[in-house]
Amino acid sequence: MERLTGGEAVVAQLEREGVDVAFGIPGVHTLEIYDALLDSGIDHVTTRHEQGAGFAADGYARATGRVGVCLVITGPGLTNVATAVGQAYSDSSPLLVISTTNATNEADRGKGHLHELKDQQGAMESIAAESHHVDRVADVPGVIADAFETFDRERPRPIHVQLPTDVLERAEPVELVDREPAAPPGPDTERVAEAVDLLVDAERPLLVVGGGTVDAADAVRTFVDETEIPTITTAAGKGVLPADHRCCVATALGHEPADAFVADRDLVLAVGTELSAQDTADTPFPDDLIHVDIDPTNVGNNHETALGIVGDAGTTLDALRERASERGLAFDGPAAAADAGPEPLSVDASDDRLHLLAVLREALADDAVVVNDMTKLCYTARTRFPTGAPRTFLFPRGFGTLGFSPPAAFGAAIGSDRQVVSLVGDGGSLFTIGDLATAVQYDLGVPIVVPNDDSYDILEDVQRQRYGRTMATDIENPDFVELAESFGAAARRIEFDAVADELPDALAAAFDRDRPTLIEVPVEF
User: 208 exposed, middle or buried (CB, 10 Å; 0-12, 13-18, 19+)?
Assistant: First the structure.
């Protein structure tokens, strides 16, 4: 046991948990934490907005599988990061947000102290998976250790921990927590046996694997290789089974021809996916739907199931494979995949979005991390962009915020030595353009590809369809090249007709730089 301030205890326990980087912006209320960081082995990335800090920590988590840590001040720091927390919650990303709150004797009294928020913890409880208040220095290590235990054992969603400023500053005897990584829950063996019985009776089964399987790629591939079951990955599960695998039918649900293929199946085994209403509301699942998920609230939540199994994706698939092997199960995966799925991307595609995506795919390494935003190009990429490895296609699908991609890409680049590229529309890019300065400061060679149509064009399409006219969708943009260069970034504009000739070289040059490169492509999608 040693005597530490609350701020020192925060940093010391984060080190015990293996944290190597934190994202945030220092404020007068968090200086005790930041002073302790100076004596630690944790690097800090200073962003230009707390929302960017949250997105960067999320991108780091998605690309690496490690917990993304974000440090914010009381009040506005917390409300600024709230959008990133909502996105991480929706997409099951392990984000730890540590904030301050007003001193113990100042809290909830409405006296107008600096950064005072009416009910800060209540605000975060409505957004994060959990929110914890710590009022004793001695409790700091345990609360942080419990958060990491939860990330290990349960569906990974953001957790908030808040500490009053006087707790951060006060020194008390503290015992740090040494913790072994917790094993996730295994499946009920009887239900595994029932699932295999259903598979034995099936003539045309299908495996669907989602974001919950990104750390179980070996288990997925072994199961598929041994059973040759046709497989669809969700967008969150892209790359768990490579798109060019002989049994891979499609890399997203909720579109034709994937839904047509589902309609022809007599059993679906869905693993590590919530089968979200956004993507599968109209997907015609058969009556024999087996749903495997670590979160019991997911099972049967969106579609009625014949059998639910609560458990970790990897251990459950291993158990299913062992029993399936005993029964000698083999299916029609290669033939089914050959007869289904969308046409491969082609540089010669007549569809402009498919053309641009094909050029990108050919120009990038197989394991490049593609970080998407909410824009037309990325909507198409969700269903058509092939990937060969998990954690290489990041998409803010559930919450659906604009501005996610650039800072998330910067966070991914900090955590990964792979190529990282950001795809973001002209509208979304301006939500978080300030963190271009972050990428410049930290020498991040990330290309940011901006298809620019000078509008919120997807909304124009919807308005025209519904009302026959448009409103508030025309936007006046800055000169993106000059704007990026003013930050110290590299920049260039590539006319759409020259994309096939110029974009590959532009991307290669961007990856060789020690600063970001904004590549604007004027489009008319």
Answer: buried
Confirm or reject CATH 3.40.50.970 for domain 352-522, answering yes or no: yes
HEC secondary structure over 89-130: HHCCCCEEEEEEECCHHHCCCCCCCCCCCCCHHHHHHCCCCE
Q: What is the pLDDT of residues 180-194, one digit of tens each?
A: 988 888 999 999 999
What tens digit of pLDDT does each residue of 217-266 get?
A: 999 999 999 999 999 999 999 999 999 999 999 999 999 889 999 999 99
Which residues are within 8 A (CB) of 26 and not within 5 positions of it... i.e. 6 or more apart? 34, 46, 71, 73
CA-CA distance, 14 to 8, in Å (whole number)? 10
User: What CATH number does domain 189-339 carry, 3.40.50.11420, 3.40.50.1220, 3.40.30.10, 3.30.930.10?
Assistant: 3.40.50.1220
pLDDT attached to residue 29? 95
Q: Provide CB contacts within 8 A for 479, sequence distance 6+.
A: none
Place of tokens 């604007």: 520
Identify the band that residue 114 occupies on the pLDDT scale cut at 50, 70 and 90: confident
Q: Which residues contact 273 (CB under 8 A, 6 or more apart)?
A: 208, 209, 210, 211, 212, 234, 236, 237, 293
DSSP 474: B
